[in-house]
Amino acid sequence: MNEQPQSLGVLVLGAGKGVRMHSGKPKVLQPLMEEPVLYYPLSAAVSSGIGNIAVLAGYQGELVEDYIKKEWPGVEVIWQREQLGTGHAVKSAEEWWKRFDNLLVLSGDVPLIRHETILDMLARHRAVSPRCTLLSFVTDDPSGYGRIVRLADGGVRIVEESDATEEELFIQEINAGVYLFDTVSLSVVINKITSDNELGEYYLTDAIQLIDDTEGDICVVICDDKQELLGVNTPHDLAAAAEVLGKRIIDHHMRNGVKCMDPYSTWIGPRVECGPDVFLEPGVQIWGKSRVFGGARVGAWSTLRDVTLGANSIVLGPSVISDSDIGPCAEVGPFAFLRSNVRMEAGSRVGRFVEVKNSTIGENAKALHLSYIGDASIGSGTNIGAGTVTCNYDGVSKNRTSIGDDCFVGSDTMFVAPVSMGNKATTAAGSVVTKDIPDGALGIARERQTNVDGWNDRKSIVGGKPGKTGEV
Ligand code: UD1
Ligand code: CA
């Protein structure tokens, strides 16, 4: 008879406040490489593809719940209304996990864990069939962690730092906070955990000795990579985790062909996708759900956040771009600022000191110098002269400017929106455009120039500067 595969639940503990972080925000929502710390253990759990996942929320749990609902459909939220320790946390979810054969407990604040490590742990658990498998690692600096105490009879217990003896404090093998339990055994011991310890908390770590004493074997899997199991408790831990993660992500992209001039000053977020032959200059940051296509180049000290950068496009640095979609063979910068839903079509160019917001720039169109383009659509092949401004805000609401294809917008044109310009139309430099300009027309909206003949001679007669005399 075929054995039924064992069912598995994954519970991610995220209800604690994180006192050592000194923050008003729950620790698991602290940003790590611009994603909440919780993003990482959840990603590892999802990538493992091993079972149902739930997150335990408690301290400011509404924020945790909102995040999960928004970003992790399919992940359940379970509440621990009072945060009385990790043992109490797991007990709070008993109704949920007792339906599974096994329970994997991940700590929401152990973000660097890889899904390969989880799968390896699971394979060992299934091969050896103990009542509990836990991850440990050996470190020169065990401070802050629970120590793994190996007992003479081959058994194991965990002692928390605050309860450890002088001798136990020297133990360098520590508990990573990642456990696989047989749920029947866990159900038996979870109610036996007491708060009889230095901090008066219900420790999940006490379940280990209880299982060892009454239920059966404990299997300890020692993880070779100690960085992977770093617990994030303090701002320093957060920075240390970012350093490890940052290197790991850059390494991944370089293996896939990204050329990174200075990996040490380059930051790429965990959700970014890069094609081969992307070239990154020093100091580049790429965050959010950005996608950079093959052959694109991002110039020094540029930041891209939730940006699609098309194949063979160039961002000259420094430029700052967010929530925008840049087509292939386009050019941006240097010193450009694009934000809030900009769409640049193929071959278009936005240049020096140009800000673009919520606008589309047509194919091969260009705005190369000192302009503000907000709430506008610019047709293909159109040239926007230096100093052009779309005056989109009338003090009450935002209005749109529409500029057609193959237009020539003279320098220093002000478009007082809502206003439009047809195809192949032109504006005279310095115009303040308040009326629509039809196809093919020239819009001039400025004073005609007056030349005052002999001005310089008059200046010498009155013996002063023309401005002083006022005799024009
Ligand atoms: C815990 C372990 C320690 C281990 C370390 C590894 C215990 C008692 N100690 O210590 O042996 O070396 O992790 O990183 O488990 N949480 C809740 N509800 C609570 C309390 C905590 O959900 O009532 C969550 C936290 O949000 C956190 C995780 O559990 O994600 C661990 O809690 P934390 O207080 O950070 O435990 P440590 O002191 O780091
Ligand atoms: Ca911790």
Folded structure, characterized:
The protein starts with 7 loop residues before the first strand and ends with a helix. α1 crosses α5. The protein has eleven helices and 39 strands. The model has no long low-confidence stretch (mean pLDDT 95). The strands form six sheets. Strands 13, 14, 16, 17, 19, 21, 23, 24, 26, 27, 29, 30, 33 and 36 form a 14-stranded parallel beta sheet that branches. It has an eleven-stranded parallel beta sheet with strand order 12-15-18-20-22-25-28-31-34-37-39, with helices on one face. By secondary structure, it is of the alpha/beta class. It has two domains: 8-229, Spore Coat Polysaccharide Biosynthesis Protein SpsA, Chain A (Alpha-Beta Complex), CATH 3.90.550; 235-443, UDP N-Acetylglucosamine Acyltransferase, domain 1, CATH 2.160.10.10. Calcium ion (CA) binds at residues 107, 109, 231, 233.
Query: What separation lies between the terminal Cα atoms?
Result: 108 Å
Number of strands: 39
CATH superfamily of the largest domain: Spore Coat Polysaccharide Biosynthesis Protein SpsA, Chain A
Query: What is the count of helical runs?
Result: 11
CATH topology of the largest domain: Spore Coat Polysaccharide Biosynthesis Protein SpsA, Chain A
Q: How much helical structure, as a percent, in the residues? A: 10-25%
Average pLDDT taken over every residue: 95
Query: Total domains, how many?
Result: 2
Q: Helix- and strand-based class?
A: alpha/beta
Keywords:
472 residues, alpha/beta, Spore Coat Polysaccharide Biosynthesis Protein SpsA, Chain A, UDP N-Acetylglucosamine Acyltransferase, domain 1, 14-stranded parallel sheet, 21% helix, elongated, binds uridine-diphosphate-N-acetylglucosamine, binds calcium ion
